Amino acid sequence: MYQTDKEVDPDNFIVDYANKNDSVFAILSSDTDFIIYQTKPHLSLYHLDLSSMRTILYDRKCFAERYLNIQVKQLPLFACLMGNDSIPYDDLKSFHEQFLDGESYAVMKTWEEKKKKLSIVIQNICDLIRNIRWTGDFPEEQELEDISEKVFRRKSETVLLRDALKVYTIDSSIPVLSICSNVHSELVKALHEKHLKCSSVCIYNLFCKKEYGSSEV
Q1: Would the keyword DNA-binding turn up in this protein's UniProt record (predicted)?
Q2: Beta carbons within 8 Å of 200's beta carbon, 6+ residues apart
Q3: For residue 100, how many other CB atoms are within 10 A of its CB?
Q4: Which value, to the nearest 10 degrees, does the dihedral of the CA atoms of residues 75, 61, 2, 198 take?
């Protein structure tokens, strides 16, 4: 368990923690965003068998190069164009439906039917990324404008796209929980250790004068 501030996406904290700690060999989660991040291997919580402690490991390199036929570095762009927490499906609806002759896979009656249509959308998006050679590099303003115009039919969504891509970038800008009280350092240290061990979580966050959300490592 890893606690974060309520206003910050916990995924970034989890990835940052995993990347900085050699003791973390993988991230066990049902959140498929961890396939997109450049971090430790993603183990599926959904497929976890507690009796045997077996699950599925998602290989992002294999996923990108073998199944999507794009580069690993293009995965964040793929995720954004498919729809994620930053870019909702409604914003991409028209873009997706152009590959389906105006038909929406969101209203298909059966999962098999929806999966078939979804695979068409995935294939076309990957073809676009590969053939136009979009990198998804958010500092590239011209590329973002081109993508925005192609996807949203207007360049004004460049900021939305840039912010969505930046979510998958882990750097030193991730805020750190800080103690907001003048107390003995030994008490602070003890509370911090209990917090990382997931005991006294509420006390620690109240001590920091922060609410918290939680996700799994």
Answers
A1: no
A2: 191, 194
A3: 15
A4: 160
